[in-house]
Amino acid sequence: MTDLDKVDIKILDALQKDGRLSNLELADAINLSPSPTLRRLKRLEQEGVIARYVALLEPAKVGLGLEAFVRVMLDKRERQFATFAVAVQAWPEVVACHAMAGEMDYLLRVVFEDLAHFSRFVMDTLLQHPGVLDVKSSFVLQAIKQTTALPLAHLGSNKV
Questions:
Q1: Is 19 exposed, middle or buried (CB count within 10 Å of its CB: 0-12, 13-18, 19+)?
Q2: Do the beta carbons of residue 130 and residue 77 sit within 8 Å?
Q3: For the segment 72-86, what is each residue's pLDDT rounded down to a tens digit?
Q4: CATH class for the region spanning 59-139
Q5: Mean pLDDT by groups of 10 residues along the chain of 160 residues
């Protein structure tokens, strides 16, 4: 874990809100001069605290209006956990995959154009993977809260 102080937290918080801030805008937002702001930013990038910069797209505006969460259970006797984890990387519909403890082995967040696209994915891809024992899906009706920002407010509170 990287040691973060209050200024680092301010930088990260500002960039989570707007990753396109110029160094000058970022420095102004955190009340620090541009040169030390840039040094801190480069350190956060080099240490991997800032993993990458991305554009967040609105799925429906690009034709991907159907979102679902898919619970996948694998047949434990088939021992396909490693091959499933590799296979998921090649499925573009899967935007997130988590190995889980509890009732399911994996939880997938998936996006599709429509129900026909979803059906093809489940029937032709997911259920064809060796070891898949059961699949249960829940469709998103409305996103109540969706953020990529981590809750940083409590971090760095006891540091200078």
A1: middle
A2: no
A3: 999 988 888 999 999
A4: alpha beta
A5: 92 97 98 98 97 95 97 91 95 98 96 98 97 96 95 69
Q: Enumerate the domain spans of the chain.
A: 6-46, 59-139
Global model pTM greater than 0.70:
yes
Q: Which CATH number fits domain 6-46: 1.10.8.60, 1.10.10.10, 3.40.630.10, 1.10.1060.10?
A: 1.10.10.10
